[in-house]
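Question:
Now give any protein.
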Amino acid sequence: MDLPVTFGMLDAVPLGRSHIVSASTSAGALPEDGTAPWNPAESYLVGDLRHRVSIGAVYARIVAGTTAPAPEVDAINWKPLRPTNTMAPFDLYRSTQAVGDAELTYVLRPGDLITDLWLGGLEATTATITITEGPGGALVFGPTDYALDGQGVHDWQAFFLAPVRLQDTLYVSGLSLALDPVITIRVANPGGVARLGAIQLGRFIGLGTTQYGVEFSVLPYSYKKFEADGTYTYIKRPSGGEISGPVFIGPANAASVKDLLVRYESVPALWLFHTGAAYEPLRGFGPFEGSVRYDDYGRCTLTGRLQSMI
């Protein structure tokens, strides 16, 4: 009997500024950043923040004065701080987020075939995905709306009385194929602020079947300390996670698993310990480690561990 493929990873397409057709809010074009652009003629104080559009990064001044070299090549005077607002969804972290008003829309042209999509670091009530064949071309997918405001709602009492909890990730599989996909991602949070921390587009590579015993845990990175007088200091920081457990793979897939472990060694990627919608906690973006044991002539067991990024 063939077992369902429930474990795999998203082989993502690298995305950068050249893949952004447009980025906007309901009020118009998305501002590059809330900081001012760098100016070589300006005199800076320690702590001044400036951004570089071409690099998509914000830098902090660490030595007062005026210097001509650009911040990205002047480590003596500038320290890289974070991506710009527009480029925040394209770094390694969910916690660096693009911020709009009540709506954020990215139109992307990845230049490759796309079957799956993952959004992380969301603060929105709905996400809408649309795909066309080339700019202004025929519609091949959507527009499809995904509700993000049902987290923790399991019965009618919670529906009417519980506070609204927002789902902070969205995984969409089985996207209609296009030779030159143009993907529109719109996230909306009416009456609030829309945020989007990560966009991953690529092809799902199915590798095996999840076994019983997979587990996840939350990794706290907040600062916590009890003082000598009994008081407690707590500084909230984003938390990560860890997922680990066994996966059944056929011997024919062992070579593919080995290739992926080598290719993605220490490289963050989206790994899905289960593709089912009810198993969202078993998905994580981060570096993956694993080992394969040949159990018998028809079965191998992959024991994997993923530590997800903040």
Summary: The chain is about 5% helix and 45% strand. The mean pLDDT is 92. The longest strand covers residues 198-210. The radius of gyration is 22 Å.
